[in-house]
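In the design runs reported in the main text, the only information available to the sequence generator was the tokenized backbone. The following block is the verbatim input for one such run; it is reproduced so that readers can re-run the procedure and compare outputs position by position.
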């Protein structure tokens, strides 16, 4: 079963990833099996780390009668290289962090009054520390709540 929020469907429609679905007499959107399959494809491609702009290009190639598999293979190879680089960064950061943890007990013993925390203050600048700030995938900010009628 495909679980996609209404706002996501509207966004896909606005961004041209899916065509506007047919409507019932009462105005409800009617999603055909083909459209549901397309939405499932978009979700799977996103799960593989492909951005919507690339997914749009892939869908466009398909609509033009061209197989997008070569393009997808190149995109995934690039994504794999990014993941490998990120893993190297995280491994280096882990080693630096483990060394700091090993030294932290001694740092606490030498802690003097008036400081926030000797471990943090005396820690060397960890060059890999930037890896904790660079996410693999961007997440949307939480939706803003607007008033008392919001029941979430």
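Verbatim output:
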């Amino acid at each position: 079963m495909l679980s996609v929020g209404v706002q996501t469907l509207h966004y896909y429609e606005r961004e041209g990833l899916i065509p506007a679905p047919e409507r019932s007499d009462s105005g409800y959107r009617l999603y055909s099996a083909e459209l549901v399959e397309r939405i499932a494809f978009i979700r799977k491609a996103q799960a593989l780390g492909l951005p919507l702009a690339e997914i749009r290009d892939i869908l466009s190639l398909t609509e033009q009668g061209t197989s997008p598999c070569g393009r997808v293979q190149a995109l995934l190879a690039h994504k794999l290289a990014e993941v490998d680089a990120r893993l190297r960064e995280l491994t280096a950061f882990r080693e630096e962090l483990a060394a700091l943890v090993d030294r932290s007990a001694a740092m606490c013993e030498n802690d003097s009054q008036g400081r926030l925390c000797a471990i943090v203050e005396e820690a060397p600048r960890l060059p890999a520390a930037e890896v904790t700030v660079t996410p693999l995938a961007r997440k949307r900010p939480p939706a803003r709540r607007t008033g008392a009628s919001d029941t979430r």
